[in-house]
Amino acid sequence: MKKGNIEEKIVQFCLVILPLIFLPNQSVFDYYYFIRHFILLVCFLILIIKMIINRNFRKTIFKKDMINVSIGIFIFLALVSVFFAENPYLAFYGDTIKYDGFITMSIYTILFLTARDVKIDYDRTFKLMIITATIISIYGAMQYFGFDFFLIEDGRNPYHPCSTIGNQNFLGTYFTLLIPIALYLWTKFRKPIYLLSYSIIVFGLLVTLSRGPWLGTIFGVSAFFLILKLNNQFKMKYFLIMLGTTALTILVFSIFSEESFISRFLMIFFDLELIFENPNNVSAGSFRWFIWAKVIELIKEKPLFGFGISNLGFAIDLRYREEVFEVFKRNVFVDEAHNEFLDLAVSCGVPSMIAYINFLFTSLKYRISNKYSKFELLHLPLLSASIGYIVQSFFNISIISVAYLFWIILGLLLNNYEIENVDLR
Questions:
Q1: Is the pTM of this model over 0.85?
Q2: Does 81 reside within a domain?
Q3: Is 312 part of any domain?
Q4: What confidence category does residue 238 fall into, taking pLDDT thresholds of 50, 70 and 90?
Q5: For residue 27, is it left (φ>0), alpha (ψ between -120 and 50) or beta?
């Protein structure tokens, strides 16, 4: 990477290099989450030190605007919830599996604030991110077809690839963030290599078999072309090429895979039909409907401050162990709500969830509305990626192997430094 200040290097490192890093064939720590948490913690401490010694940097990233105020309210409420947690230590530090405690939330916040202030070469960074995503997609596809360089054996289904990310659902979320960026590069530079990269990344998304990220990607890509249309830069030719490439990629996947994309995707609507016919159907959405129902009951029990970050599994196990066994037909430790918003509500309280939703709404409104700032088309892939991530988060949780990318991308979306005016026609 070219020379730049420390925050620029940290942001680019996190976007380009960190997604590739994991610990294969080791027995002390987990393969995927510990190393990212450790590296992000180091980055966090470096940025905190710079804030302490550099008054201008501190003053800039903590500027008082509606976005920083909204995230400040959210992180404050999350901190308060730690003191009311069933296990405050766990809520603050997080568990040793997902590392999702308040410290991790603080890391996300500082990365977001830093990304808002950093000066980077957007196009160069996007190109490097797509190289990384292409590598990760190829590795994930190889795992899906039974080839793995590192022979990781930790109980994962070999046909549900996790590549370097750690879980097929989280891998799908990663691709949801990157596909709009690949589309942007191809639409702007119109080079076949970017269309090929887009196709490879879409193939990687398909092999995850994860419907939440599929749905998020559809929303993200739809937003991409809708925004082009609204900015009078939509060109039917490139839209049709994108559709054709996507259809061809799905066809290739269907030929070489035992899974049918169409039948798998239509299961979303089949599950909805099951719920409408019988609201008590516990198997809908891969048992998500059952989990959501129990989580909502827990939210009603402690609506203000929740049970604490990383405490959900113990709360469910204490109250619903027999029901969980009856539904899953085995002992399962349900420690995830499989919905980021419900997860926040049950962990930190309903006020924290509302504050988070307000932060997201304020951020997107700030960038879209001309009242607050000028929307440039260089923001297009960042906005589309953010929309896709938010949609898939209704079916997934925030996890350290991917969530930090969303927070940085959202920060870059709200970056107000002068950028090149892009014409994609």
A1: yes
A2: no
A3: no
A4: confident
A5: alpha
